[in-house]
Design goal:
The chain is of the alpha+beta class. It has 2 helices and 3 strands; from the N terminus they run αβββα. Strand 1 and strand 2 form a beta hairpin. The longest helix is centred in the C-terminal third of the chain and has 31 residues, at about 65-95. The protein is rod-shaped and about 70 Å long.
Length: about 100
């Protein structure tokens, strides 16, 4: 069954490529923002929060507004990271859309 050997080699090649993409995603910085840029959140390509920056003037707002804007900025960054991750993994998987890969 020579077809099985070829399929196994292709799967191993795809796995190595996916590992390389995961390493690249981990090094990326993707920014999300809210409140007109007064709140900025940075995540890596895997969606892990790296930093939050707040405009000092914005901190004079009420706590609820600040909290909600921080959440919005983090969610914005996470959504961008997810889209980038799907795009990069799609290049490796050829658009197969394999669930649970990212």
């Amino acid at each position: 069954m020579p077809g099985v050997g070829k399929l196994l080699k292709q799967a191993q090649k795809m796995q190595k490529a996916m590992e390389a993409v995961q390493a690249e995603l981990e090094q990326m910085s993707i920014e999300g923002s809210a409140a007109g840029g007064a709140v900025r959140a940075v995540v890596n390509g895997q969606g892990t929060l790296k930093s939050i920056k707040l405009d000092p003037e914005f901190l004079k707002e009420d706590a609820e507004s600040v909290e909600s804007s921080i959440l919005a900025a983090v969610n914005d960054a996470a959504a961008k990271a997810k889209a980038k991750s799907e795009e990069e993994m799609g290049k490796v998987t050829g658009g197969f859309g394999i669930p649970g890969i990212i």
